[in-house]
Structure formats: structure tokens, C-alpha cells
């Protein structure tokens, strides 16, 4: 009930009618999304890359993927480069953040979003989304770590549950793709989601 009221309020606040598609629920598909950024602090973080891929049923639609590099407004620090591997020369020809996020919004439409610690990615994206649309992303969000927690808790209530990505990958037998690449991370999250779905926790 509260979620429905919030969506109705958001729809009234939408300042660009082109993005009414965000409210057209498309539950037959979901979109796994990941962002690489300049900081782990949402307030400071700028986008460096965005990766996303659509999932339908038990399939990852790799032919329907999205990946863009984003040119930050501030100079990259060496500690950031060591984490995500993106150098100034890599992002120098990237899109501006506004254009990149607009393209992402067109890609996801009203599909639910899937991710590993998705809350952070959505919080960073919303800094740009609000400027474009006047609202935060209204899409339903599916958190992989939460679904995995529920899966393990049912097996062994009260036990310590390790939510590190490497642990999830090993336990669910997901191949380890190179980390800190936004599209690879989105695909990994998608594989984890499908694996949990097959176990009744999608």
C-alpha cells in the first residue's frame, strides 16, 4: 500500500514526461546494474562507468547489455585507479554523466533492478536521476545479498552468514569474472540472481 502511494506521488512529481516509462512495470524482465565510481561516499562519488544487462526467465540476455564510460568532472586519484583500473585516458572520451544516465534510463524502463549492494549504486545514480526527472528511481529493487542471506538462514538459522561476493560466487558456483568492471559485475550479479531464483529465492 505504502509502496503504491509512493509511486503515485513520484509519478505526479515527474518533470519530464519522456520518463513515464519508468512506471510501466515490466516484471517479465529485470535489469542487473552496476556502477564504478570515484568514491565509496555517495555524496562525493562521481560515475566512471555503468554496466547493465537484461534478464528474462532463466536467461541473461547478453545481446541486450549496456555499458558506457563516464567522464568525471574532477581528476582521478591514484587510489581510485588502483581499485577500478580506469585511467584518466580511459574516461577522457567518456560521456558526460547526464547523457550516460539518460541512456541508462531508456535501457531499464520500468524493469526491476537487481544488484549486489545495489543500494549504493542506486544512491549514486539518483543524484543524477533527480536532476533529470525530478524523482528518484521508482523501479523495484532486488538485493542479491539479502536474497542470499534468506537462502542461508533457511538452511541454518542463527549461523553467521558471510556476504562477501567471493563467498557467494563459490557457494553458488558462479564463475569469477574480472572484478571492478561494471558490465562484468552486472553479469555476475545476474548469474547470482538466477542461481538463487532456481533455489526458490529469486
TrEMBL record:
Q: Taxonomically, which superkingdom?
A: Bacteria
Q: Which GO terms describe its biological process?
A: DNA metabolic process
**Any single Gene Ontology cellular-component annotation:** cytosol
Matches recorded under Gene3D superfamilies: Ribonuclease H-like superfamily/Ribonuclease H
Question: Which stretches make up the Exonuclease domain?
Answer: 29-202
Cited SUPFAM superfamilies:
Ribonuclease H-like
Molecular function terms, GO-annotated: 3'-5' exonuclease activity; nucleic acid binding
Question: Which PANTHER family did the record assign?
Answer: BLR4117 PROTEIN, DNA POLYMERASE III SUBUNIT EPSILON
Q: What is this protein called?
A: DNA polymerase-3 subunit epsilon
Gene source species: Aquitalea magnusonii
Amino acid at each position: 500500500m505504502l509502496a503504491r502511494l509512493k509511486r503515485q506521488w513520484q509519478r505526479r512529481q515527474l518533470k519530464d514526461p519522456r520518463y513515464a516509462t519508468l512506471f510501466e512495470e515490466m516484471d517479465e524482465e529485470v535489469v542487473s546494474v552496476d556502477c564504478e565510481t570515484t568514491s565509496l561516499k555517495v555524496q562525493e562519488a562521481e560515475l566512471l562507468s555503468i554496466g547493465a544487462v537484461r534478464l528474462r526467465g532463466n536467461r541473461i540476455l547478453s545481446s541486450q547489455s549496456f555499458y558506457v564510460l563516464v567522464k568525471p568532472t574532477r581528476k582521478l586519484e591514484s587510489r581510485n585507479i588502483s581499485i577500478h583500473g580506469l585511467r584518466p585516458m580511459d574516461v577522457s572520451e567518456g560521456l558526460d554523466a547526464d547523457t550516460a544516465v539518460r541512456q541508462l534510463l531508456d535501457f531499464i524502463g520500468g524493469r526491476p533492478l537487481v544488484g549486489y549492494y545495489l543500494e549504493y549504486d542506486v544512491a549514486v545514480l539518483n543524484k543524477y536521476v533527480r536532476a533529470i526527472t525530478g524523482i528518484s528511481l521508482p523501479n523495484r529493487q532486488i538485493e542479491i545479498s539479502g536474497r542470499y542471506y534468506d537462502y542461508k538462514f533457511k538452511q541454518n538459522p542463527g549461523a553467521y552468514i558471510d556476504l562477501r561476493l567471493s563467498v557467494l560466487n563459490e557457494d553458488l558456483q558462479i564463475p569469477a569474472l574480472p572484478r571492478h568492471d561494471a558490465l562484468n559485475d552486472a553479469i555476475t550479479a545476474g548469474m547470482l540472481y538466477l542461481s538463487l531464483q532456481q533455489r526458490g529465492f529469486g
